[in-house]
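Handout, page 2. Input:
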Amino acid sequence: MGRCAYAPTVAPLPLLRSSLLLAALMASTLVGSALLAPPLAAQTAAGADTLATDSTARPRPAVRGPLAPVRAALADSAAARVPFAPVDRALAGVVWTAPAETEAAIADLVAMYRAGVRQVRTDLVEDTVLLEAASLLGMSLWQDLPVEGLPAAFLVGRLDEAGALLAGALDRARPYRAARHFGLASASDTSDPRARAYIQALTELAHERGAPGTQTYYVSRFPRDDRAAQAADVVLLDAREADPVETLRRWRAARETPVGLASFGTGARPGQAGGWRTVGTEAAQARALEDAFEALMTLDRPPVAAFVYRWRDAAADVVERDQRAEVTGTRFGLLGDGDVPRPAFEVASGFWTGRQRVFAFDAGSGARQERR
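Output:
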């Protein structure tokens, strides 16, 4: 908002009162300007926000208060020194469910940024303050439409509804460079060729209506038998409790569509006794994640994105939808109850930031193991 002054119109007054009137008018002008114009520091911050968003962005007011933790994190990271280079941002991803409260969600984004996360796969983000925060942090948000586990015929039947959701998300995302990836379906039957029409129609909508650089993806359960890959920009594969490199290899043996990992990692059963050789322990979860990162970093063709599953343990509603090991008490979160970090958090953050690449875990015999 530009500076402006409000000066009331007055009738002529006797000469003896003119000096008092002039002083009053000047005071009114200064007060009006001070009330209506933003402080210089806020103008500077707004200019900095603009640099962090897409060049095609339409003008918008900067949100200042909630973003203070974001700017603090950026200032702190400028002085960070680590012994190794961070992993490529394609491997610095995590699956995240945003808290309902804006303040809590921003705190999560800042915590993930400090841990080295640069890409986040999540649900559709409607809060533009979060889109702004992610953009300032240089993070990419991969947003899933709420279309999950459907047969191909049902996908086609949901096309109008999904198209409306996608159109709204594309319009909302335009000013924010963090929001350029949109997931069209998760774990639905893309082995059926009829699913291709759904994927193709929404991809065309995203390219036509989205900001420059907008891409579509979907999460496939069919690394060998998928039939819709050519209709999307990227396909993501679920590699939980599986070898992520072998999962990528099976996909690439049959097709050339760019591929990534929608989720990878191993779960832990809280309270499970034993060391990293015992399945279900937190040490085994951490060791499996270390092995996965090492293998992914050696690939000549790394995945276009890879998301550790997940930032914190899933809430009850997510567990109920999962229909996988989580329903038996297994938890995948890097953060457990009360957001206490599991050993897997130290592994992921070590690779993401370049802080550490070799980790010691108890093998279960009481001896500490530097490497197997």
